[in-house]
Design brief:
With about 375 residues, the chain is of the alpha/beta class. It folds into three domains: about 200 residues, Rossmann fold, CATH 3.40.50; about 35 residues; about 120 residues, Zinc Finger, Delta Prime, domain 3, CATH 1.20.272. The chain is about 50% helix and about 10% strand. The protein is built from 17 helices and six strands. Helix 12 runs antiparallel to helix 13. The N and C termini lie far apart (about 55 Å).
Amino acid sequence: MPFAQYHGNSRVVTALRGMLTSGRVPHALLFAGPRGMGKFTLALQLAQAANCERLAAVGDSCGECGTCLKIGELAEPGPLIERGLESRGASPDTATVERVPLILQTHPDVWLLVPDPVRLRNPVARPVLRLGQLRAVQRAAQFVPSARRRVFLLEGAETMAEAHSNAFLKILEEPPETSTLVLLTAQPDALLPTIRSRCLQFHFAPLGVAEVERVLNEHKKMAPAARRLAAQLSRGCPGTALGIDLEESRRLRRDALELVERAAGGREFTEVFQLSAQLTKGEGLGFENLLELFYNLFHDLLDAVTGVSTPALRNPDLQGEIEALAKRVSADWVGRAVSRLDALSSGVRRNTNRQLGLDSMAAALALR
């Protein structure tokens, strides 16, 4: 897909086009922004434009030549991940995981690395970019491209362990002239400062609700009211809006709000713990997404408690329930809730038990 079809963050698109037309593409780029913001889409468009067989003077790809089409297949990495994991067997040991790194490739000059779930069935709880993947990039980056430029896309760059980051740093310290590494991350501060300093950084800003609605209108058939709600819930991230299941989203947010309501009401801990277990064991919802869900609820609750009317609610369809709860709690209570949530978020990064952490937060809020 050409740059011309990309929505939002026009300054980033303009900068990338300028690099291509001038022939001065940096050896390392850092795309930072929330999940679903379109970082991966734009990185893939960069890889296409850098190798397009009909590269235009305006620094864009045609989207139709064989090279563009092959690179574009990476837009749906799911089947490639499945094949890569199947090639290791059902229960690979650590040596096999490192010896057979998960590399997604549909064109010789473009690689996609994603955090490795290790197994197709029963994947690890927190996939990370592994040393075997990074070493494979270090070797391949030295090869002469078959087209014009080798491009390596590293999704979830913040998942590199610090020891592995040091190994990866060697690639950035001695960059090959014909290779570009694009690091994609929602948490740029989790990367080593030495890595960030060696990358040209681009920070992606959220899109407006109306612009997200236009993206939805182009790619997904939805009723106007549902399209509006999906755009509001996405927080300016078109990828999030496209993938959202409104019915499931509403159920999960209601369950989370019920947990907060019961904690605020000092209910029996048994009821609170049952709800927390139901939330943490829910299929298809990562714990980081669950934490974000609670952050959004507390954000709206604090606005309701303090009487702030702008910016717009993050859960507009739960406005009535949130306003009712706001009459029963204080701003100090919401502040303590957010502090507890911050502690839980920090603990998760240190492998704290997630279920116990959420139980502890709920119990602390119930003890008013």
